[in-house]
Amino acid sequence: MSTYESYAEYYHDLTKYSPEGIASNQHRLDFDKQPSVFKEYPSQKKIDISYLLLLDRNPFSDVGIKPQKDFTNEEKYLAKLSTLLYFSYGITAIVPHAEKPFYMRSSPSAGGLYPSEIYVISEDYPGLEDGIYNFQVVNQSLAQIKKGKFKSGLLKATFDNPNINEAKLTLVLTGVFYRSSWRYQDRAYRRICLDTGHILGNIDVVSSACGFKAVLAGGFNDKSINEILELDEEEEQSLVVLPLIDKNNTVKDFPKALPSKLDKVNIKTPEGNRLIELHNRSNIEKFVNIPNIKIQSVEEKLSFCTKAQFDENKISFNWNKNLYTTLLKRRSTRAFSGESISKEELAALLDFGYHPELFRNETLDPNPDYFDASLIETFIAVNDVDGLEEGCYFYSKDGRYLRQIRFKNFREEIHYLCLGQELGYKASAVIFHTADLSKAVFKYGERAYRYLHLDAGHLGQRINLAAANLNIGVSGIGGFFDDQVNEMLGIPEHEAVVYITTLGVPAKNS
Question: What is the pTM of this model?
């Protein structure tokens, strides 16, 4: 029996991929037990919101699209919600298949398993009866789960977060565990939180265009929120609460993230139970202040390394015009050509992730919400970027420059550590998001693991959208040999690799 400072560190160690572990893993996919990627409410009232979409045609029914000039006042409000939900998590393409069609969505998901659900809690919102609704992705509708007013319960569950009181709509994003664990076993918790972070990235960029400000409320009493939604906690639990306030209103000051308990214990959890055990241990029962600690940046240890400064950004994404078309065309790239991208393009993608204030004139919110982005460190392996030497770099998100820490081409190593995926070998650049897990846990308890992966998914999705806008190929990778990545980057074992994003020129027909 091993002693760890936290269950999160235990979970992270026990769910690492290694060459030996992959070779000895006996897990085989049972397609007879493959879960549905949609939650169904066959007996519940459905409210069609597909006919209000900003599309040329209605992909969900033959009702068609109603012209905006003919909207009633209530439909104008419903159209905002329909647009937000569709471009955050809706179906943007249908791929025919012999067994059943595959539905592609506006946000990426590991293995196309889409383990997240979105619930809408309405109170005094025009056009929508007070109550709780599930977003029915498959037909762009809302299934009414419960009628009534639930704001008082939400306020209590979020420890009187004042932004809940401001909101007429509150979204709750949940994780349906088995949808992902069916394939990825206990490691699925990483994927579930990353995938939910992708949705947060979309909500963040779309909400402002719809007249909302989506405010993160990461600290809440999990059991209370689960009870409000009537979730079966063995199968599904809440991950994020998001009050939607009017974008012209001032966001009230309240912590985005709160810590959960942290007990140093002797731990031994059987395989197959680690995912749910980590999530349950990260639950919050009462409000606890965040410890006032400073987490040292990796950069302070790398100040001697050569600096490569990015020039002033001159690339425009023209989000005013291209936001919705970018979300519709976004796809994970399946193959790269091996050709180069430019230093300016790489800088623009990083700027959109880390410096949204540089794009104030493009109508997007210049202050996106993260739980604690200061915990995330960023390394970049450069294989073929015009204007940069090959090698491994640390990215200074504050200074907008790179520090070169290793000098060589890492194509072979990346190909190997990304489980032999060609994407790693032929990528022009590979972004690694990491975090000092032990210090993050000291600050936020077991819940730190949730926050880290949600934030990494959010950052990764901003980079995805920026790349799609510029027609640069991009694909996230959640499966990799953890310790080998640390060795390649030259970072200590306690620095956890959270997410990998590959960038490059798409191969033809990819």
Answer: 0.96
